[in-house]
Amino acid sequence: METKLSNLDGKVAFITGGGTGIGRAAAMMLVEQGCKVVIAGRREAPLTATVAEAPKRMSCVQLDLSDWDAQQHALDTVLERHGQLDILINNAAISVCKPFADHSLEEIASVTNLNLTSTAVLTHKALGHIIKAKGNIINVSSAAGKYTGMPPQLLSCYGASKAGLNQFTRLLATELGPQGVRVNAVSPGFTDTEIAAEAFSNPQLVEAVVSVTPLGRAGQPEDVARVICFLASGEAQWVTGQIIDATGGYCLAL
């Protein structure tokens, strides 16, 4: 990211799901902007590989977001390493892409728990530190949480969990604004990530989505990461409670 954004140098950011995809791209860009970044995720290998790209300003901690005790350990680790937490980026998520009738009960519960409940719990645990820093929170949502059409009709539970995350973003912004904390979300469309590859395993489905995307391609993690960095920066100091689309215009065709 070539443009130097204000109010990021020296800030500490914690990113869930930071070893791959959008989380990884955001971590790399925030490091370029002068942030100290701690990334978290379940798998050690992607985390260590990402940290190796910027070892002086980035570190990692393993975290299963559904384990609430592990959440506290991860946050304690951030504070032990850096003494503060300015930016919380709730990026980790799971997706199930198939007709609702084919969802197992376990899939329904796990999608809702990880994407909404566990994200809210982590935010609650981090809240005191974010308020102290007058920092900001950025949630990574999804176009499936805002729009229907193809393929969101195959993402019923995932879309519902992201719709809940959107409303959580708006309502939390109204609560925390008087304390100097901003809360926003970015809503990606189809983006070339691992989670998308699992959900969009049918090439014809990918082609169909791209065909109704005005910019004519799939999104890249960096496309979404640029929006995240903007929302985290001083350039967005008058922006809160917003769900910013990063879809290549996909929603315009719906």
Helix-strand blueprint:
Layout (H helix, E strand, L loop, with lengths): L11 E5 L4 H12 L3 E6 L2 H8 L6 E5 L5 H15 L4 E4 L14 H29 L2 E5 L15 H21 L5 E7 L5 H6 L3 H9 L9 H12 L10 E4 L8
User: Separation of termini?
Assistant: 31 Å
Number of strands: 7
Low-confidence residue ranges: none
- Average pLDDT works out at 93
Strand content: 5-15%
- Cross-sheet strand order for the largest sheet: 3-2-1-4-5-6-7
SSE sequence, one letter per element: EHEHEHEHEHEHHHE
SS summary, helix count: 8
Query: Nearest-angstrom radius of gyration?
Result: 17 Å
| Main sheet: strands, sense, barrel | 7 strands, parallel
Q: Percent helix among the residues?
A: 40-55%
- Structural category: alpha/beta
Describe the structure.
The chain has helices at 21-32, 44-51, 68-82, 105-133, 156-176, 194-199, 203-211, 221-232, and strands at residues 12-16, 36-41, 58-62, 87-90, 136-140, 182-188, 243-246. It is α/β, with parallel strands linked by helices and 254 residues long. It has a seven-stranded parallel sheet with strand order 3-2-1-4-5-6-7, sandwiched between helices.
